[in-house]
């Protein structure tokens, strides 16, 4: 490695400048390194020849005697200048210096007359373009404005703000623009302050908000914001992204203008100016963007290196800036062209040179450039070469052995072979970049190498180097050869019996099939020698049904994959359908649809049966509960009847008939679907005395209470309460109460009941 003092490098580079018309201009360039060093200059990429107007000084700087923006022949001294330095080891180029002529245009915005009431805000503006940026000053009544007055605010872009206007502020205003090129005056404008301060309420309003700015780091940004209203609004600033503005380098000019000094990239953003009515949330806002650019600068410089012949040299160059810089590489001042052994990666940040030789020895430069500026850094590559190294190996040949193997052979170098300690075979796919190369070491007594584990149908490049303890020889000639094509691998085959005459063959396709591929399917009875087939199947087919088979024999099924290189190995399976036939005889096939329907029917029947059973249980419980309650009521009524005085048998018979009639009516109601016995008819046929009627009412009342319950409740009455009445020709004897004789019992009388 070489120290920086011996490296060819710039100590001073030319910088951007603004030149004055007809004035001299000097561009500086100072270089260090091993002498002799030659310095030359270029403008817009063209070499500058010394002339009366422009020539190089003894220290390497360029002197322009009379700078002219436009010469008589149409040429101009404006442009991009760079300095080139060269010595025995290489050439370097400086950064580009942009030279512009100092100018000043006419005013394109002049101040305008204004009439503003007392206490209000007045604003005048002048605008003019120039290089360098003109300095604008304001005059009132032909005298410079007093900048010590806090109510007067002068902004860098040619704006004059006057707040809290008073009568003495009235006058005639104009601005004066000055730079190294010229001095110019704007038109005049009159300010008239009218009336007295108004106390009428006015909503806050922003007269002028911030404009969009694009500046460079370390410059100063002024964001204007002027607001009116009554009471006077309070102006505040914030960032749209919510980040704090900070306090360092921040200053408020006048009543609300924001000035940011010594800009950095972090100051970029959208700034919001808000005019707030005091004590309320009433506010008006305006916003503007600030873009801060940063010239390109290096985070990591390329370093000079020394490498033996045949090795790899890597240079790294990392730059930052806003916007992100573009990186370009130069080799001895010329744009570096990439090739098979020269590669750029990582957005040109990394330069790799593979298999270096003496022709690669040079100075390599990294240029980083963006819209804010450019910079450069250089590094030197020294290729180490020792005398007496072997010459390249001879007669390198490569022969294809198989789809994955190639044999490489060579002959020993013609010169300096005594110190050889071995050979290195360099292997790479012909389509791969150089960095994908790999090596295999071979002993010095071996002149051939079998390279295995290669890919089928692929081209490979090979070259050989002979190594000694002092370094490697130059590379031999490169030979390129391709491996053979490979047939597909064996597919995985599975056999499934469908029925007594059909089997299904399924398989998984091989991942190594070529572009034109497919499958061949064969099958035969095992006792026969001839196959049926081949059945040709496309590469996307993965199943095939073999039909019309004989169930009594065993079959052999064979499947293979093929491509343009031939047939692959086959996969064989044996299958018998005899067991399927036997199972079919012993276990006849079921009608699955019918069984499914039967299952559904059986399930439905079970569910319905369960519902019916539950319903019956509920009815039985209700039957027992209400039957028990009715029995208690009936027994109570019977006991009351038995405790009353005895009545004649004929009367008891009548009563018994009534009961039997009622009982029979209930039964008839159930047996004959609602046939009823009219109670009036019974009274007409069987008149009774009042006492009997009361007794009958009591009994009937008891019966009516028990009537809604089960008929078994009637069986609780003693048998002697029932009477059988036979039809007789003679009328019954009259009762003491004179009741009418009893009528014959109807045909369905209680005789049947007894």
UniProtKB/TrEMBL annotation:
The keyword Ribosomal protein does not apply. Residues 643-754 are annotated as: Disordered. Residues 8-100, 105-192, 204-287, 295-382 form the Ig-like domain. GO terms for cellular component: membrane. Keywords: Disulfide bond, Glycoprotein, Immunoglobulin domain, Membrane, Repeat, Signal, Transmembrane, Transmembrane helix. It is a single-pass membrane protein. Pfam families: fn3 (PF00041), I-set (PF07679), Ig_3 (PF13927). Residues 392-486, 487-583 form the Fibronectin type-III domain. Signal peptide: none annotated. Its main location: membrane. SMART domains: FN3 (SM00060), IG (SM00409), IGc2 (SM00408). It is found in: Membrane. Belongs to the immunoglobulin superfamily. DCC family. This is Immunoglobulin superfamily DCC subclass member 3. It comes from Poecile atricapillus. The gene is Igdcc3.
């Amino acid at each position: 490695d070489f120290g920086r003092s011996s490296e060819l490098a710039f100590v001073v580079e030319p910088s951007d400048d603004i030149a004055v018309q007809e004035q001299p201009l000097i561009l500086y360039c100072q270089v260090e390194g091993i002498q002799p060093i030659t310095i030359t200059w270029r403008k817009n990429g063209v070499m500058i020849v010394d002339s009366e107007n422009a020539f190089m000084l003894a220290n390497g700087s360029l002197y322009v005697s009379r700078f002219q923006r436009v010469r008589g022949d149409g040429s101009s001294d404006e442009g991009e200048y760079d300095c080139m330095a060269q010595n025995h080891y290489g050439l370097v180029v400086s950064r580009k210096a942009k030279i512009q002529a100092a100018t000043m245009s006419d005013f394109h915005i002049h101040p305008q007359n204004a009439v503003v009431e007392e206490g209000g805000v007045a604003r005048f503006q002048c605008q003019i373009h120039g290089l360098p940026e003109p300095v604008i000053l304001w005059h009132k009544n032909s005298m410079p404005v007093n900048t010590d007055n806090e109510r007067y605010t002068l902004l860098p872009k040619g704006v004059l703000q006057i707040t809290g206007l008073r009568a003495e502020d009235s006058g005639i205003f104009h601005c004066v623009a000055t730079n190294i090129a010229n001095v110019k005056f704007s038109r005049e404008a009159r300010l008239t302050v009218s009336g007295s301060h108004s106390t009428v309420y006015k909503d806050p309003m922003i007269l002028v908000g911030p404009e969009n700015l694009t500046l460079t780091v370390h410059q100063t940004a002024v964001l204007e914001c002027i607001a009116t209203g009554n009471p006077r609004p309070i102006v505040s600033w914030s960032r749209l992204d919510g980040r704090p503005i900070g306090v360092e380098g921040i200053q408020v000019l006048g009543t609300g203008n924001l000035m940011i000094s010594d800009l950095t990239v972090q100051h970029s953003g959208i700034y919001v100016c808000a005019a707030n009515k005091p004590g309320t949330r009433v506010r008006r806002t305006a916003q503007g963007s600030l873009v801060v650019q940063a010239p390109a600068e290096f985070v990591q410089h390329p370093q000079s290196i020394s490498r033996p012949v045949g090795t790899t040299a890597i240079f790294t160059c990392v730059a930052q800036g806003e916007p992100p810089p573009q990186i370009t590489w130069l080799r001895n001042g010329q744009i570096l062209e990439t090739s098979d052994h020269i590669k750029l990666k990582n957005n040109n940040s990394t330069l790799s040179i593979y298999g270096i030789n003496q022709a690669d020895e040079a100075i390599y430069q990294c240029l980083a450039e963006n819209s804010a500026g450019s910079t450069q850094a250089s590094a030197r590559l020294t290729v180490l070469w020792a005398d007496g190294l072997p010459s390249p190996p001879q007669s390198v040949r490569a022969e294809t052995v198989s789809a994955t193997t190639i044999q490489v052979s060579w002959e020993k170098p013609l010169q300096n072979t005594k110190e050889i300690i071995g050979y290195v075979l360099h292997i790479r796919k012909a389509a791969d970049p150089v960095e994908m190369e790999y090596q295999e070491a071979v002993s010095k007594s071996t002149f051939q190498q079998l390279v295995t584990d290669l890919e089928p149908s692929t081209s490979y490049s090979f070259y050989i180097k002979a190594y000694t303890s002092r370094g490697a020889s130059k590379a031999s000639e490169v030979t390129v050869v391709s491996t053979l094509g490979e047939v597909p691998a064996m597919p995985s085959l599975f056999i499934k019996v469908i029925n007594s005459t059909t089997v299904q063959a399924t398989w998984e396709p091989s991942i190594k099939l070529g572009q034109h591929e497919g499958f061949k399917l064969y099958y035969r009875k095992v006792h026969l020698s001839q196959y049926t087939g081949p059945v040709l199947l496309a590469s996307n087919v993965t199943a095939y049904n073999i039909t019309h088979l004989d169930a009594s024999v065993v079959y052999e099924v064979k499947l293979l994959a093929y491509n343009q290189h031939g047939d692959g190995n086959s996969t064989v399976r044996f299958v018998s359908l005899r067991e399927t036939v036997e199972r079919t005889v012993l276990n006849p096939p079921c009608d699955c649809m019918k069984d499914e329907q039967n299952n559904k029917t059986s399930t439905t029947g079970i569910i319905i049966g369960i519902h019916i059973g539950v319903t019956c249980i509920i009815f039985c419980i209700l039957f027992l509960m209400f039957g028990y309650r009715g029995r208690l009521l009936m027994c109570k009524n019977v006991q009351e009847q038995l405790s009353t005085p005895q009545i004649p048998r004929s009367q008891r018979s009548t009563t018994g008939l009534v009961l039997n009639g009622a009982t029979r009516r209930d039964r008839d109601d159930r047996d004959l679907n609602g046939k009823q016995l009219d109670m009036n008819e019974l009274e007409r046929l069987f008149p009774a005395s009042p006492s009997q009627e009361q007794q009958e009412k009591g009994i009937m009342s008891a019966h009516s209470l028990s009537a809604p319950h089960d008929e078994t409740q009637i069986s609780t009455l003693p048998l002697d309460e029932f009477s059988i009445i036979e039809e007789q020709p003679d009328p019954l004897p009259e009762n003491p109460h004179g009741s009418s004789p009893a009528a014959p019992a109807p045909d369905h009388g209680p005789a049947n009941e007894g």
